[in-house]
């Protein structure tokens, strides 16, 4: 059971932009350099975060990206729900493709949903602010400050 | 975020053998027919469940498989931990391969662990008995009783 690399990188971009603060612009190259991960991947990630309304892109010379909303408005559970393809723990979670014959009477399905709900209840209780505020050590590593 | 097909099928095999009861033997063919899933997959699954000590194989003519332990001794969280390859939600969960530079100061890692713990706390609170006992409808579908 894993989150996608795409979710992992999305969260890292948000952490980076979160420690940068709301106004200052960053470039994908800077984020790529800070984490040592592919610029191509990050370009796609930031594009998608833009479509979600979390990241704003300023075009042109001296342009870059920054958070479009305050860190305390970026809920982690909500973000992960959007960046993951799906949360189909088992076949019956996908109503369209499910062919499991015991679905109508299977109590396991409900328990797996209960477990997934508990997982999200934790993520839903945090925002990006919880990870970037008063975290000078994070800023030091990412921004070299 | 998904569980593997292997975990899904393992749980289905355990449900089948659970409704069969401890003594009666089943064949992989019967389980394959009941769920409409590949016999080849189920052969591998039952072999692995055997190695985990959950399923017993009686060889020879009239042989088959059955649970090796009582349903109330088969914990769901424990079983899923064994059938999944790993629970590396993000890169830093894998100590050997992790290259994320912010790991020492990243609070997100702790929160993802907290979410995973909440997920398992639910699964750990159930055993196979919770799904198969007094579930005549499940037996009716799987065994045609």
Brief account:
The structure is a homodimer of 145-residue chains. By secondary structure, the first copy, chain A, is mainly alpha-helical.
Describe the structure.
2 copies of one chain form a homodimer. Chain A has helices spanning 5-20, 28-35, 39-51, 76-83, 107-124, 129-132, 136-143; strands spanning 55-58, 64-67. The model of chain A has no long low-confidence stretch (mean pLDDT 92). Helix content of chain A is 52%, strand content 6%. Chain A starts with a helix and ends with a helix. With 145 residues, chain A is mostly helical. Chain A folds into 2 domains: 1-74 and 128-145, Winged helix-like DNA-binding domain superfamily/Winged helix DNA-binding domain (Arc Repressor Mutant, subunit A), CATH 1.10.10; 76-126, no CATH class. In chain A, strand 1 and strand 2 form a beta hairpin. A two-stranded antiparallel ribbon of chain A has the order 1-2. At the A-B interface, helix 1, helix 5 and helix 7 of A face helix 1, helix 5 and helix 7 of B.
Question: For the residues shown, what is the average pLDDT of chain A?
Answer: 92
Give the overall shape of chain A, derived from the CA principal axes.
elongated
Q: According to CATH, what is the class of the largest domain in chain A?
A: Mainly Alpha
Strand order of the biggest β-sheet of chain A: 1-2
- Alpha carbon gap, first and last residue of chain A: 36 Å
